[in-house]
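Exercise: predict the fold of this chain.
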Amino acid sequence: MNTTVKYDIDVIKGEALELVKKRLVNRQQPIYTLCKHIPYRHWSNFELELEKNEFLLRDRIVDLLEHESWEDG
């Protein structure tokens, strides 16, 4: 069965935030770093959604985390 996963920008932002929280990626790394954590067969849909929302693969992950809340610790 061949299913296509639809990524919208909110899903991408949520996945990026989870990967940052788990320290699997750094918020200063380029967005294309996320490709290591997205199944290859889904990457083109992921990339198209980024482009549609005016994100470049060379932009930093932190750009996806614009609504991230900071906690004093």
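Check your answer against the key: The chain has a mean pLDDT of 87.
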